[in-house]
Design brief:
This protein is an alpha+beta fold. The chain has one domain: Aminopeptidase (3-Layer(aba) Sandwich), CATH 3.40.630.30. It is 39% helix and 32% strand. It is built from seven helices and seven strands; from the N terminus they run H-H-E-H-H-E-E-E-H-E-H-E-E-H. The chain has a seven-stranded mixed β-sheet with strand order 1-2-3-4-5-7-6, with helices on both faces. The protein is globular and about 40 Å long. 27% of the residues are buried. It binds coenzyme A.
């Protein structure tokens, strides 16, 4: 069932729950239909496939969010020495504001903690206050600006959350999980 027909038939949507599963090459076509609508400079199939290959080697972790058989969201992490870097997170416009991005970020943050990383970082457009609000819920705080990072025009806000290996951060993630239940 497509997103459009699901929106026309809300009871069908209610019977399909949001699931988070590892990203595979077979998801890339669906991912691109979302990516190309929401990003001025979308990643290509080649970039996603290469990231999936790196995930197989343990250097990345990518997930997709599904409603029934349909991919409606995706996101991922790149692993550095001590920190994990959120590379991409997106939700199809039709199903935004339902907590799907928060649930994916929760999954990604838990993966980073389980793998023993001590910090999470990311870049976000200075104009993207919606995403920044979500990152703040996870404890991310602004740490600097990368000038003209996007399309050589818009600045990126660099955000970090440290001490993700602490009991306090574990409690924060548990509280987010409880709220979304
Ligand atoms: C940012 C994005 C991933 C959020 O996805 P989503 O599933 O709609 O987000 P959620 O419903 O999980 O919301 C989580 C929090 O994000 C913030 N948020 C999300 N959308 C928002 C909006 N339109 N306005 C204000 N805050 C918003 C809120 O703090 C929200 O928490 P709340 O519901 O308790 O208020 C989505 O808007 C998107 O795909 N945008 C385009 C791609 C993008 O900007 N990605 C981030 C790149 S760094």
């Amino acid at each position: 069932m497509s997103i459009v027909s699901r929106l026309l038939n809300p009871s069908a949507e209610a019977s399909e729950s949001f699931e988070i599963v590892p990203m595979r090459r077979r998801h890339v076509k669906s991912i691109l239909t979302i990516e190309e609508r929401i990003h001025p400079k979308p990643w290509t199939a080649g970039v996603f496939n290469s990231e999936i290959d790196l995930a197989r080697r343990g250097e990345r972790h990518y997930v997709v969010g599904t409603l029934g058989s349909e991919v409606v969201a995706y996101g991922g992490l790149m692993f550095a020495v001590d920190e994990a870097h959120v590379t991409n997170i997106a939700v199809a416009p039709e199903v935004q504001r339902r907590g799907f991005a928060r649930r994916m970020l929760l999954r990604l943050a838990n993966v980073a903690v389980e793998r023993g990383f001590t910090a999470l970082t990311l870049e976000v457009r200075v104009s993207n206050t919606a995403a920044q609000a979500m990152y703040r819920q996870f404890g991310f705080a602004p740490a600097g600006i990368r000038q003209r990072y996007y399309e050589n025009t818009e600045d990126a806000l660099v955000m970090w959350v440290h001490d993700i290996d602490s009991p306090e951060y574990r409690a924060r993630l548990n509280a987010i999980a409880e709220d979304d239940r």
